Each structure stands twice: as C-alpha cells, then as structure tokens.
Amino acid sequence: MANVIIVGTQWGDEGKGKVVDLLSEQADFIVRFQGGNNAGHTLVVNGKKHIFHLIPSGILHQDKKCMIGNGVVLDPGVLIEEMDRLGEVGLRVTPDNLLISLYTHVIMPYHRALDLARENRKGRTAIGTTGRGIGPCYEDKVGRGGIRVHDLLDSAAFSEKLARNIEEKNFILRNFFQHEALDPAEIMDEYLAYGERLRPFAGNVSLQLQEADAQGRNILFEGAQGTQLDIDHGTYPYVTSSNTVAGNACCGAGIGPTRIDSVLGVVKAYTTRVGGGPFPSELLGETGEHIRKVGGEFGATTGRPRRCGWLDMVVVNSAVRLNGLGGLVITKLDVLTGIPVLKIGVSYNCRGSRLDIVPAELDALEACEPVLEEFPGWDEDIEKVRTWVDLPKNAKKYLEAIEQISGVPIRIISIGPSRDATIILKDPFNDKAAQQLLSGNIYDG
Ligand code: IMP
User: Fold this and answer.
1) The ligand 1 atom nearest the CA atom of 302
2) Ligand 1 within 6 A of CB of 254
3) What is the spatial distance between Cα 407 and Cα 403, in angstroms, rounded to a whole number?
4) Which residues contact 293 (CB under 8 A, 6 or more apart)?
5) 43 pLDDT tier (thresholds 50, 70, 90)
6) Nearest C-alpha to atom 20 of ligand 1 is from which residue?
7) CB atoms within 10 A of CB 398
8) Is 13 a catalytic residue?
9) Ligand 1 atom closest to the CA of 229, numbered from 1
10) For 175-181, which contacts have Cβ atoms below 8 Å and span 24 or more sequence positions?
C-alpha cells in the first residue's frame, strides 16, 4: 500500500488531471484537499474530452472512491451540474464513489458577487481570479463565519448562519460596490435543495481515510493549482486563497503527515500562467504564441489564453523544496517538438545579482530576468514513443537536464493527451521503498 500526494510545481495547469487519472488505476481512494471550481482538468479518454472542476478526476474509474476534503471550497450548484453531466455520458456518481466532507466550506452567491466586484474595482491591478468566489469563501472560513456542508443539512442552522452573513454581505455589496443586494429567501430555497441532493454524499472523510489507511488501501491526494499559486509560498498577492503545497493534503483531508509515503510533482515541460502577476521566463513573441497554439494553452475553467514561457527551474526547484518532492512527472513534452532551440531558466538575474530562489518581494520578482541555458530541440514525433530508449537523443538531454538541475528523479513522462501517451519509468504505488529512499521523506516513521 502507499499514500501518494500529487501537486503542481508551477502556476497550475501542469496536466495533473491526466496524471491523477493514470495513477487512479492503482489507487482505491482519490482525494481533493484544497481549491474549488477554480480548478479545471481536461481529460481525454477513448478520444472523448471530459472537463471537471470539482469532482476528482479519479471518477472516471467507477470502482474507486473519490473524496472532497474539508480543505476544498464547494460550490454545490456546480458540483450537482457536474454530477448530472457525467451521468449523461454514462458515468455514475453515487454515494458509493463520492464522499463529501461535512466540514467542507460552501461557496455562496455573495462570495461570487464579492469576488467579481472586487476584481472589477481593482481594474489594472486585478489578480485575474476565476471569479468563482474562492477567495471570499476562504475569507469567511478563516473569519469563522463560513457555512459548511453540514449546515446545508440542517435548515435551522442554515437559516441562522445565512441571516447573519447576508446582512453584512449585502451591506458591503450595496454600499461599497454599488452592487444590487441578494435575496436571502431565494438563497435559502436554492441551497436547502442542494443540501437535500447532497445529503447522501456527506460524511466524515478523515474517518474513512483512517479506516482505508488501516486496511492498507492506496490513497491518492490530488492537488489543484500549483506551488507558485500557494497563498503563503506563491507569488503573493497573485495567488489563489489556499495552500497548494503537499503539506496541506494532511490538513485539507484530515490525515496525519506520518501516513504519507511519497510526493510527486507535476512539471509541464515549459511554463504557463493565467491571470496577473510576474512571470520571469514569459515569452511574449512568436515562440510563446506557438507553444500556446500547439499546447492548447487556454484555461479549462475560464477559457482565457494562458501566458507561455520557457521552463523555469528556479520555480521548479522551489516546488522541490516546499513539497519535499520525491519524484517528477513531466508533461506535454510533445508540445516542444519542432522548436529548434529550447531554453531552460536556471537562475535569475535580479538587478545585477544572481538569485536562485523566487524572491518574496513582488517588485524584486518583477525585476528578475531568467538566466537561460540552451538545448538543441528535436523534430521526431514523440507521441507514440513508449520507452525511454526510444526518445530522441535531444529529448533525453532536455529531460536529463531537468533531473540534474532539480536533483529529483523523473518517474513519468507524458507525451500526449491520451492515457496511453505516457512513459512510466517508475510507478509510485509499486516502489514505496525506493520512493522513500529517494525522497528522504522525513515524515515516515
Ligand atoms: P482564484 O483562485 O479564482 O481566486 O484566482 C487566483 C489566481 O489563481 C488567478 O491568477 C487564477 O488565474 C489562478 N488560478 C486559480 N485556479 C487555477 C488553476 O486551476 N490553474 C491555473 N491558475 C489558477
């Protein structure tokens, strides 16, 4: 058995969905522990595209149990719509394969309204949020005024909490943002109906994980967004409102750190970012445009074009440190095929000084220019390659440079969107001992 955490090492959209889907084959439980419907995974299975925002991508494996942990913020209307859409394509979502934590905080209409109103007001300095109410919902959670899943199951508790919240939110919406007030009666009806629909799915995720762990079952923890979007360690304030690093898998699911066996980091072979904020290796010209087009770099949630740039190993190395990564998964290597000279950022030049970490101060990061090393590209179509030896020589050199600069072994290489377009070098569920050895996992007793 093994309990494995998967996280993004960059600014999200690294292709975690496909990796989780792949590894879900061996997992018994797949758990989301943070974020909400700001995330979006596009998965291609049997040639068909599936987009998910809330349900763990593991739902494609109908015999597995997916869990939404307490660290997630849940928009119940979106979840129900997702469940219905999956039903239409023949994928069942039942209490047997989905469990929602009673402790999970609920995104309310006023969270979405506040998110959008704040962004509009900021104008040029907007964060570029997904507008899904993520930040305001986490604010209420930390401010101890939030509404949780169990509240939706108890009309008296819900009514009292909604009344308390709506008075304050409507005051701010009306008086500060000149936004129309929201109708509490409408919200009450809508959300109590959601509660009834979700009642059979609600339970204690932490307890079920403890049982699963005691029985030696495999658990996969699925991170959303990426390390540079972490509320503490990312490029603040251009971040999301939760901790995206591996440590939060424990808090956001209700499992102790001694129960985790390994942590895998997903690295896109180049870098992308949606929304505002500094991006030292950004490519503003033709090559960036080419990567965007070939890589289909448009947001799965908002459809926004993603900003594209060279692989930035300063960013990846921060993720190695912050997550304690024991292995890397490289994705979208195929997108780089045909680019004659590839570049990798190995450090920053910040106002004349060399910097090997992402600085805390936004203005310093904005002043950073990447120090780029060049690597010869390859022209061979690699999408059908299934073994390391069959990769073009220059692709191997590019990958070896990533291993060498990060000091972390590559476990899996993804060379196309479908499940089988993958080279598995080492399976994290089947080499627990090796993983621990390589990751120097301090959590393992
Ligand atoms: P929020 O999470 O909607 O508050 O947005 C905050 C920042 O995180 C914005 O720059 C978003 O574009 C970014 N973001 C949120 N979720 C994702 C994701 O799943 N992938 C990439 N960027 C994301």
Assistant:
1) 12
2) no
3) 5
4) none
5) low
6) 12
7) 22
8) yes
9) 8
10) 177/114, 177/117, 177/118, 177/121, 179/113, 179/117
Cα separation of 352 and 350, whole Å?
5
- How distant, in Å, are the alpha carbons of 49, 50, 199, 384 from that of 60? 12, 9, 22, 23
Cis peptide before 409 (omega within 30 of 0): no
Q: Which residues pair with 373 in a beta bridge?
A: 344
CB 128 less than 6 A from any atom of ligand 1: yes
Residues 70 and 35 in one domain: yes
Q: Does the beta carbon of 13 lie inside 6 Å of ligand 1?
A: yes
Ligand 1 and 68: CB distance under 6 A: no
| pTM higher than the cut 0.85 | yes
Active site residue 50: no
10 lines ligand 1 (CB under 6 A): no
CB 441 within 8 A of CB 262: yes
Q: Which of 42-51, 159-168, 262-271, 436-445 has the lowest mean pLDDT?
A: 436-445
Same structural domain for residues 248 and 332?
A: yes
* CATH classification of the domain holding 132: 1.10.300.10
Tell me which of 10, 129, 222, 238 to substitute to probe ligand 1's pocket, judged by most ligand atoms within 8 Å of the beta carbon: 129
For residue 54, the domain's CATH number is: 3.90.170.10
42 C-beta closer than 6 A to ligand 1: no
Pick the last residue of a domain from 200, 231, 260.
200
Which of the following is catalytic: 21, 28, 41, 334? 41
Say whether pLDDT at 261 is over 80.
Answer: yes
Look-up of token digits 């005051």: 171
How high is the pLDDT of residue 303? 86
How high is the mean pLDDT of the chain? 93
80 SS3 class: helix
